[in-house]
Specification:
Oligomer: single chain
Structural class: alpha/beta
Helix content: 25-40%
Number of domains: 4
Low-confidence stretches: none
Shape: globular
Radius of gyration: 27 Å
Number of strands: 34
Distance between the termini: 10 Å
CATH class of the largest domain: Alpha Beta
Largest sheet: 6 strands, mixed
CATH superfamily of the largest domain: Glycoside hydrolase, family 3, N-terminal domain
Number of helices: 20
Strand content: 15-25%
Mean pLDDT: 96
């Protein structure tokens, strides 16, 4: 190797970028937290406070696994309240929980060490699979005692939960259910303190029914996981510095059994390897509406310290576009605030049964002072309200009346207009994909009809205004974006093409160094001018090692100690050999920002803010030499127990797709870097994710589980897409030509490259060769077995040289456009 590049900052001093991004992280966290209840307790004017609960000091900033970020520091809730000027009178209970926590973590480490004992160095990836699947669960606390109480008059209780990659949540105490001690604690606090504030520090929903029986709980805040500045953001809300403006992106049920197919999630029905999506399109608020189930908190709900009046103006239409002007006024007298206005469509029933309402547009106001107004225009295309007809493989708009409702939650809307369509029309003529291999019956929703008042404003859209899009299905042509790409592809041998289509694996020296990145492309084609690019995990920031060193020859070393995530098994023994010598070598520091998790980002309902977060992440990518960010994730919150719901956006595909597109635009506003949207698709449980099949009818697949991806691809134009681990209707997604070529490329116009999830095609899982021929261009993270399998497939005809050239071209188009390659003139 003639040279190498390292990225990052040469010293560990705080940079201006860090300070600016912390401020943005704090702003986003505060804007996404949701005030669920408030009887006037908040904002809190007094400055004395009692603090309890396992999340108070051990605040969960984000989910575990690939979604982690190694920031310089993070602010827990205890410190955030102190920074806001509150005095915590009694910390003895928190000190006691520290001991419980430390003991539980030590036992967890010991258990993992037992599980990985005997793993050899060449099995390090499998060793880490075992580690990542052993999620550390925050231990239960001791009960609060009378001696722990004080005379502050106000108590805050933080319910903390952790979840992450590799495991789903459970219907147990200290997870979905409150523990017995948590319930008794809250009863004791409510009997002693004048005001009790409950803070929920969890990446997903939980059962709050015990709170119904406890008087004197004055306020409930859904903190979610607020990133490194979460504690300060909560202090801003509690003190009244900021009025809450977050809105829920999921429907909170009164009990778990109210969710569709609650009894069949994961292994609850005895078979985690097959999940029938029997609820069909009725996911989230669609289910609660259709079956008249009253939720605890509806989709889109959230309180403020002020009040707003929403006035709908005269709607208008042009061709298939409908515009509804809405004026929002802050009618309060003390607090400035922001409001989210939501537009829902009620579609006419016909050949296809339909949900009672469909989120079709939303917007958030600027910060409005008391008495201040803002007029916003909510726009939607009636074609986006089409339903999929499996019989004709078409999206259709059925004739009839479409009710347009405006409000600030799915349960609080007012009819604004009625749009009438004179004839049924086809908006898109497609082809059937992903057939169900083992048929099952979907749950039928009750019939529902509505009569609109004669006084309602009516708009008429002619069927002639709707143009039918007819998709042509072909294997994509090989398209070299530059002559450099074309010449390089032509020069590569078949063995070299295979090398390019398989990730670079781990270990060894590389040209471009971003220590701790999740993966990279190959470094074995340098003679062709092809260096590696680096891919880093997300979704709450860039997941890299903060302290790094390199020898003069480019070998990686570590500063001070082996990274904490690597202090396992035989790796601990090599620490003396991989540490940098004092004063020797080149230093590179990557203190990345831990932003709030995507579930909280979505609760801002603020696309501009999320785009700004994306631009900030892009800045950190350029600083650290990362070319592709393995985010955003936009799988649907089908069930509240999914362990990775924190890193996905919502139960609703429109909101999910818009948020993913927004952060993609922000990242890719910088030249030479891109995102990887994931996991395509139906990756809605972690249990047996490598083997399970999500069995789903095509209409449901297209309207719910693919729609967010299609929005993100069409509007955000991501560089890359990641296929998921699971099967869809018995076909592994990396092997699905229907998903990766017909839907992704032919229907949505995607022109980047597709990569597999890590090790998704290894062993007895998906096929390497089928993946490549289906349109999965790169096998990650890369292995000798993958290269050998592709070589064998080329020999026996399972793949062709053209298949290799097509995938290699997709990869090289991106690689040669990356900032690290364009900026490197030494090769």
């Amino acid at each position: 190797m003639k040279h190498f590049n390292i990225y990052g900052l040469p010293t560990d001093r705080e940079s201006k970028r860090e300070l600016a991004h912390r401020k943005l992280s704090r702003e986003a966290a505060a804007e996404g937290m949701v005030l669920l209840k408030n009887d006037g307790t908040l904002p809190l004017r007094g400055k004395k406070l009692a603090l309890f609960g396992i999340g108070a000091r051990k605040t969960v900033k984000g989910g575990s696994g690939s979604g982690d970020v190694h920031e310089r520091y993070n602010v827990n809730i205890e410190d955030g309240m102190k920074n806001a000027g509150y005095e915590i009178l009694n910390t003895s209970w928190l000190d006691g929980y520290d001991k419980i926590f430390d003991k539980a973590r030590a036992d967890w480490v010991q258990d993992i060490e037992r599980k990985i004992k005997g793993f050899a160095p060449w099995n390090v990836i499998k060793m880490f699979d075992v580690i990542h699947e052993s999620t550390f669960i925050w231990p239960m606390s001791d009960a609060v005692k009378t001696s722990d109480l004080d005379d502050s008059g106000v108590a805050m209780y933080v319910i903390g939960r952790q979840a992450g990659e590799g495991a789903d949540r459970t219907l147990r105490e200290n997870d979905w259910f409150l523990s017995g001690n948590e319930i008794s604690d809250l009863k004791l606090l409510a009997s002693h303190y004048n005001k009790v504030i409950v803070v929920i520090n969890c990446g997903g929903m939980l059962d709050l029914s015990p709170l119904d029986e406890i008087p004197n709980i004055g306020a409930i805040i859904y903190f979610v996981q607020g990133g490194q500045e979460g504690g300060n953001a909560l202090g801003d809300i509690i003190s009244g510095k900021i009025s809450p403006s977050g809105k829920l992106t999921d429907t909170w049920a009164r009990r778990y059994e109210d969710y569709p197919c609650a009894d069949s999630f994961g292994s609850m029905d005895g078979n985690p390897d097959i999940t029938d999506y029997r609820e069909g399109i009725y996911v989230g608020y669609r289910w609660f509406d259709a079956f008249d189930i009253t939720p605890r908190y509806p989709f889109g709900f959230g309180l403020s310290y002020t009040t707003f009046d929403i006035t709908v103006k005269q709607a208008s239409s042009q061709d298939t576009q409908v515009t509804v002007p809405v004026t929002i006024k802050n009618t309060g007298v003390a607090f400035a605030g922001k409001e989210v206005t939501q537009l829902y469509i009620e579609k006419p029933q016909g050949k296809l049964s339909k949900e009672r309402q469909l989120l079709s547009a939303f917007a958030k106001t600027a910060l409005l002072a008391p008495g201040e107004c803002q007029t916003i225009h909510l726009n939607f295309d009636i074609k986006d309200c089409a339903s999929y007809d499996e019989d004709t493989a078409s999206f259709i708009l059925e004739k009839g009346d479409y009710g347009v409702y405006i409000g600030n939650s799915s349960a609080d809307t007012t009819l604004a207009a009625v749009v009438s369509l004179d004839e049924t029309v086809v908006t898109e003529r497609l082809t059937n994909i992903c057939p169900v291999t083992e048929n099952f019956e979907e749950i039928e929703a009750p019939e529902h009809t509505v009569l609109y008042p004669e006084t309602a404003q009516r708009l008429h859209i002619s069927a002639d205004a709707v143009k039918t899009r007819i998709v042509q299905y072909t294997k994509p042509e090989i398209h070299c974006k530059t002559e450099k790409v074309k010449g390089t592809i032509e020069a590569l041998t078949e063995t070299e093409l295979i090398e390019l289509c398989v990730g670079g694996g781990y270990g060894g020296r590389v040209v471009n160094n971003s220590s701790g990145c999740a993966g990279r492309t190959t470094t074995k084609l340098l003679k062709h001018g092809i260096p590696n690019i680096n891919l880093a995990d997300g979704p709450s920031g860039i997941n890299l090692m903060p302290k790094n060193a390199y020898t003069k020859s480019g070998s990686p070393r570590y500063v001070d100690a082996l990274p904490a995530d690597w202090q396992w098994g035989w790796l601990k023994k090599i620490e003396p050999f991989v540490l940098a010598k004092p004063g020797k070598g080149l230093r590179a520091f990557h203190y990345m920002t831990a932003f709030p998790v995507p579930a909280l980002q979505a609760q801002t309902w603020n696309e501009d803010l999320v785009t700004t977060i994306g631009a900030a992440i892009g800045t950190e990518m350029l600083e650290s030499g990362v070319s592709v960010w393995l985010a955003p994730g936009l799988n649907i919150h089908r069930n509240p127990l999914c362990g990775r719901n924190f890193e996905y956006y919502s139960e609703d595909p429109l909101l999910s797709g818009k948020m993913a597109a927004a952060i993609t635009k922000g990242v890719q506003s910088h030249d030479g870097i891109g995102v990887c949207i994931k996991h395509l698709c139906c990756n809605n449980q972690e249990e047996r994710r490598d083997y399970m099949s999500s069995d789903v009818h095509e209409r449901t697949l297209r309207e719910i589980y693919l729609r967010g991806f299609s929005i993100a691809v069409r509007e955000g134009k991501p560089w890359t897409v990641m296929s998921s681990y699971n099967k869809v209707n018995s076909v592994y997604t990396p092997n699905s030509y229907d998903l990766l070529t017909k839907a992704l490329r032919n229907e949505w116009g995607f022109d980047g490259f597709v990569m597999s999830d890590w090790n998704a095609t290894e062993g007895d899982k998906a096929s390497h060769c089928k993946a490549l021929s289906a349109g999965n261009d790169m096998i990650m993270p890369g292995s000798k077995a993958a290269r050998e399998s592709l070589a064998a497939g080329l020999q026996d005809g399972r793949i062709s040289r053209e298949d290799l050239q097509r995938s290699a071209t997709n990869i090289l188009n991106l690689l040669f456009d990356s900032a690290v390659v364009k900026g490197d003139e030494k090769l």
